[in-house]
UniProtKB/TrEMBL annotation:
This is DUF2183 domain-containing protein. One of its GO terms (molecular function) is phosphatidate phosphatase activity. It comes from the Bacteria. Pfam families: APP1_cat (PF09949). It comes from Cellulomonas humilata.
């Protein structure tokens, strides 16, 4: 059975008749035509199909498989491809530093058929219009980290790590990236472009104390899952994965988004992406409560407060890193959080359901707050 899915969207191929499927947005149709023309030209110049694997997750009986199929120039080494970050997400390879623009020196391949080996089971999937696979597959894997094998029709292979969460796991961590674990000091519209195209990976700074905070939250709790949820582009996944490994953040899948047109509009919504992915985690892992970690530079306080309001039984605690004066100016043009952000934080702090809301300038301050509030992670 062939399955098609797109990161951030529902898993599995649609079973609706063609007549009921909404017409694809003009922007997406234009992008599709451009991509087909580019792919045709690049194949004629000897570019070859490669697989960019991303870390996935799962539970008893299933795994969520994430990957992308790309065309790359024949002289480009596999270790220089975006997929070189896939293993770094699982902590299984060195975090070799690269300049971010390498992550865009590729072209996606839509409609590519892949064979996916998950333990003793073999599945067949097909990439979507962006070259992505994001689908749920049956699995017989035991809890812990595993490698799954992806193979194209011409024999190109790649290995993607996947974290199978055990039935006894009760607490997990969802973490934002920009200004939560990584210092950006840039206006948000330019953050992703600068980090991906210009900035060398070694130049990126970690927010002080955050890696230790996550290690403390995981301490004594076995395979506590960590999921990095960001509005950043999938093209930045390898650089982000290597950054996390270099700065000793715990291994975990990245849930990013795809830049550019969607089937319904010119651009996709970052906040909507975060809300949808949180809801998906809540649905897929119903026995896990989540510690939600973000910053007050954008919409994390509102998103997390909404999650706690609608799904209080799924949220163990909310941790918000408070940006400095200068970081707030760069994030949204004013030296303090916006009125909506302040209200969201205040509303969350007054929550009647007992969900702790802890704020601090860095990981050290947040860790003190966790200890002082006696947050129970058992």
């Amino acid at each position: 059975m062939l399955r098609t899915a797109r990161p951030g969207g529902p898993s599995g191929a649609s079973t609706n008749p063609a007549s009921s499927v909404p017409r694809t947005h003009l922007a997406a149709r234009l992008e599709n035509g451009f991509d087909r023309a580019v792919a045709h030209q690049l194949r004629g110049r000897g570019w070859t199909v490669r697989i960019e694997p991303y870390a996935g997750y799962g539970a008893t009986g299933w795994v969520r498989v994430l990957s992308r199929t790309l065309l790359a120039a024949p002289h480009v080494r596999d270790e220089d491809l975006p997929g070189a970050g896939g293993s770094a997400q699982a902590g299984t390879r060195s975090a070799t530093a690269l300049r971010g623009w390498r992550s865009f020196a590729t072209a996606q391949v839509s409609g590519a058929e892949l064979e996916v080996q998950v333990g003793d089971r073999t599945h067949r999937v097909v990439t979507d219009r962006g070259g992505y696979v994001d689908t749920i597959l049956e699995s017989d894997l035991a809890p812990g980290w595993h490698d799954i094998r992806l193979t194209t029709s011409d024999g190109t292979t790649a290995t993607a790590p996947v974290h199978v969460i055990g039935p006894d796991v009760r607490v997990g961590i969802v973490s934002d990236i920009d200004d939560t674990v990584m210092v950006t000091r840039l206006p948000r519209p330019f953050v992703a472009a600068w980090n991906v195209f210009m900035r060398h990976e070694n130049a990126r700074e970690a927010v002080p104390g955050m890696a230790r905070l996550y290690a403390e939250l995981q301490s004594g709790h076995g395979e506590t899952p960590v999921v990095y949820l960001s509005t950043g582009a999938w093209n930045a996944a390898p650089t982000l994965a290597r950054f996390l490994r270099r700065h000793r953040y715990p291994a975990g899948p990245l849930l990013l988004t795809d830049w550019g047109p969607t089937n319904s509009g010119w651009f996709r919504s970052g906040p909507a992406h975060k809300v949808a992915q949180l809801r998906r985690l809540f649905d897929e892992l119903p026995d896990v409560q989540w510690v939600l970690v973000g910053d007050d530079g954008q919409r994390d306080p509102q998103i997390y407060a909404g999650a706690a309001q609608h799904f209080p039984e799924r949220v163990r605690a909310i941790l918000i890193r408070q940006l400095t004066f200068g970081e707030h100016v760069l994030a949204h043009g004013v030296p303090v959080p916006t009125t909506d952000q302040v209200k969201a934080e205040q509303d969350a702090a007054r929550r009647p359901d007992g969900i702790p809301v802890i704020q601090g300038e860095d990981g050290r301050a947040l860790l003190r707050g966790v200890r002082e509030r006696g947050v129970d992670l058992s």
